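Today's session is about reading a structure prediction critically. Students often jump straight to the picture, but the first step is always the sequence itself: look for stretches that repeat, for charged clusters, for runs of hydrophobic residues. Only then move on to the predicted structure, which in these notes is written as discrete structure tokens rather than atom positions. Here is the chain we will use throughout the hour.
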Amino acid sequence: MGPRAVFGQAALSIAEENEDVFLISGDLGDSSGLARFKNKFPNRYINVGIAEQNMIGVASGLAKEGYNVFTTSFAPFITLRSGEQIRMNLGYMELNVKAVSIGSGLSMGFLGNSHYGIEDLAVMRAIPNITIVSPADCAEVVKVVQASSRFKGPMYIRLTGGVGNPPVYNDEYDFEIGKSIKLKDGKDITIFSCGSMVYECLEASNILEEDGISAKVVNMHTLKPFDQHALDDAIQNAKAIISVEEHSIIGGLGSLIAEYKSKYRNSPPQLLLGLPDYFGKTASYSYLLNNYGLVKEKIAKNIKDFLNTR
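Below is the predicted structure for this chain, in token form.
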């Protein structure tokens, strides 16, 4: 299953245990993996139609009444179209609403730029009081949904990748909002990634290792609040810091790291890998990832080229 279907299963699971869980969709119930949820809990599910601004308003009202509300839509619609409502109701009023974006990044590439979620992190990071989480694989989607159901306050959950996403985690592990996870140790460079790029970075680190480059790989699943200790460690010990994300190079994970690094007098050089600052092609997901260099072989090559120029 892909992240959407897994989200739907996880939402169903927490709703079976908590009567205060409520789901609202912007006419994407089946696409969000919520078919079973709406059939089992029809009184705790609302399809507001293609009206995302209204969706956030309805969710906010339910949150005021004590419900733990999850809302879902495609990334550009739930963030850009609903930006004012999220800013006021979630950011300013800090209501207990979890905005879940499906198809973030390039996974909706066959529908073109109208459905790309390439600026959403930049927008959401700029709004105070909103926690931002981007799970690395389907196992972590479950972890995030479970953790978010216990979390009191507004949250943006960014789902990237498509059906058949390769797993990052094969064993049980502890997940904590705001605390990154070191997936691989290394002494030369530190690679920070989130979402779909975590797997690609792990694979890229293996390619680098064959060339004698030891890379630490960190899953920075929470982008706000981010794990400052992990960044401090990289700044103090790594020869270079690499950020890789399925998002614009402006305003996302790479920008977050650069902003934090700026307070240091001396810090390692940084390579930002992500999507360029222009509207791209309409194509399949796999083609787009390869075209923008967000696959393991090209990530490894870009890192090697960067290190060779230092």
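Discussion point for the tutorial: DSSP finds twelve helices and twelve strands in the chain.
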